[in-house]
Amino acid sequence: MAASSAMLQSCFAGSRIYSAALPSNALLSPKRVGRVTPVRCQAEEQRSQEPPVTVPTPKPKESTRFFDILAFSGPGPERINGRLAMIGFASAIAVELARGDDLAAQLMNGGLPWFAGTAALLSAASLVPLLKGVSAQSKSGGVMTADAELWNGRFAMLGIVALAFTEYLKGGPLV
């Protein structure tokens, strides 16, 4: 068995092996004896089922310039307005439940200075991290994500508009 295997391999390689069991030209045709038979082997390329790995290109660092942060498409305006709307909506509902004043009465009875002071303080507190280059996405995790904050702010903005519109149509406080 080993001799026939060696004989077969030698025939493909073109060399002769002399064995007592088989003559040197037992597997070769008479024309091919003494010639080298070239053998070519070509492997097929194996295609992977997984998509090719692409290295993500790093995002350019966001600008920390004041006017870039407060630009229309910058990170500041929607985040600051959303935070102010969340505080404003919660406090408007709380004061309305406690005193029975509608939104317009709350602003007329000393609420305007409180609104301006709160807006200035929260705007400054929201701008400081952005000016230092810290993004909200880098600090978010779990349930409290940056996207959740934006959506809550959007709903609070709609809530304030709906509260004011409802009180206008009703002619008084919501509750």
From TrEMBL:
Q: Which domain of life is it from?
A: Eukaryota
Q: How does it sit in the membrane?
A: Multi-pass membrane protein
List locations, semicolon-separated.
Answer: Membrane
For this UniProt record, give its keywords in alphabetical order, as a comma-separated list.
Membrane, Transmembrane, Transmembrane helix
The principal localisation class reads membrane
Q: Does the keyword Membrane apply?
A: yes
**Any one annotated GO CC term:** membrane
What is the name listed in the Swiss-Prot or TrEMBL entry for this protein?
A: Uncharacterized protein
